[in-house]
Design brief:
Elements: H1 36-57, H2 61-82, E1 101-110, E2 115-121, E3 135-141, E4 150-154, E5 165-171, H3 177-183, E6 190-198, E7 209-215, H4 219-231, E8 238-245, H5 254-263, E9 268-274, E10 284-285, H6 290-296, E11 305-310, H7 313-319, H8 334-338, E12 346-348
Parallel strand pairs: 7-8, 7-11, 8-9, 9-10, 11-12
Antiparallel strand pairs: 1-2, 1-6, 2-5, 3-4, 3-6
Helix pairs in contact: 1-2
Domain FAD-binding FR-type: 98-203
Cofactor: FAD
Membrane topology: Single-pass membrane protein
Length: 349
């Protein structure tokens, strides 16, 4: 009996099951409003300023002292009113006309043979990145002798609420100028970053069930979405992830994904497939194919579902087709169209 049978009904089982899957191969925020206490302070200061003026007109030394004190109070109140209100988080990246921000490398961690996690320090320790779900950042650097700078988008893997830093998970590609540059960075070096770049606007329970199809570092926007869902106790969305890689070593964030499966077995399932699996591998073999997706994804006729896709061009072409631009999703083709999904049900990161 094929283990593909444990598909959509698997969410009703509390314990994870073994999965063996056969597949085939392919080559800004608005300015903070003044608080009531700040407005009261300004009103009090204005009153004191009026009293100072009255005494000043009388020409006494006391009047001059009162006026000076009044000006001091008004100035302090204005400074307080213009600062960040209590409870409002300062953001390093605010989008719009902000431009690029130079972030310093804080730490570098080698994840595997071609991937590093690079932590960048934000300008202030109590700042958050300014990213939201789902969004990315744009990185920039100009190679020596080049006429134009290199620009590449990345989805950070650190929590959006993290203070003082932002993490990028970067796989180095043989002819990738930006990934090679980021891999050459050491603590103290800097990188130009801009953002956030809005992607899919997520809100709790926006969809009843979502499917995530990822290849390689295409897992990063999926992780951003998954993390937001399971960090929010009000969000009850069910999630199915299908993650394709070359080798077992290439599976990024596997530990974090396994923890979610163990914690939310009725709401989160992850299926892995490898082009070059080891002998003891119990998951899928080959690339992500039609039979696998037909078995594990929410059915296209199911109400209120969404399928997200992100990966290398070859995978995208086979599964959904590539998007034309950040604002143009392009035509839906490939396996998802064959399975009956509509363009409205599919989003390409």
């Amino acid at each position: 009996m094929s283990l593909f049978v444990a598909s959509r009904s698997a969410f009703r089982a509390a314990a994870p099951i073994q999965r063996s899957l056969q597949t085939r191969r392919y080559a800004t925020e608005p300015a903070a409003k003044s608080s009531g206490s700040t407005l009261a302070l300004l009103a009090g200061a204005a009153g004191l300023a009026g009293a100072g003026s009255y005494y000043f007109l009388s020409g006494t030394p006391v009047a001059k002292k009162a006026e000076a004190k009044a000006k001091e109070t008004v100035s302090a109140a204005a400074d307080k009113a213009s600062s960040v209100a209590p409870g409002v988080v300062k953001k390093a990246l605010t989008g719009g006309d902000q431009g690029f921000v130079s972030l310093e490398v804080k730490e570098v961690e080698t994840v595997n043979h071609n991937t590093k996690r690079v932590r960048f320090a934000l300008p202030e320790e109590d700042m958050a990145s300014g990213l939201h779900i789902a969004s990315a950042v744009l990185t920039k650097f100009k190679p020596e002798g080049a006429e134009k700078p290199v620009l590449r988008p990345y989805t950070p893997v650190s929590d959006e609420d993290a203070r003082g830093y932002v993490d990028l998970l970067v796989k180095q590609y043989p002819n990738g100028p930006m990934s090679t540059h980021i891999h050459s960075l050491n603590p103290g070096d800097k990188l130009e970053v801009k953002g956030p770049l809005p992607k899919y606007p997520w809100s709790a329970n926006k969809h009843q069930h979502i499917g995530l199809i990822a290849g390689g570092t295409g897992i990063t926007p999926m992780w951003q979405l998954v993390r937001a869902i399971f960090n929010n106790p009000e969000d009850k969305t069910k999630v199915t992830l299908v993650f394709g890689n070359l080798t077992e070593e290439d599976i990024l964030l596997k530990k974090e994904l396994a923890e979610l499966e163990n914690t939310y077995p009725q709401r989160f399932r992850a299926f892995y497939t490898l082009d070059n699996p080891p002998k003891e591998w119990q998951g899928g073999k080959g690339v992500i194919g039609k039979e696998l997706l037909k078995t594990v994804l929410p059915e296209p006729k199911t109400e209120n579902i969404k399928v997200f896709v992100c990966g290398p061009p070859g995978m995208m072409n086979a599964i959904s087709g590539n998007k034309k631009s950040p604002r143009d999703q392009g035509e839906l083709v490939g396996v998802l169209k064959e399975l009956g999904y509509t363009p409205e049900q599919v989003y390409k990161f």
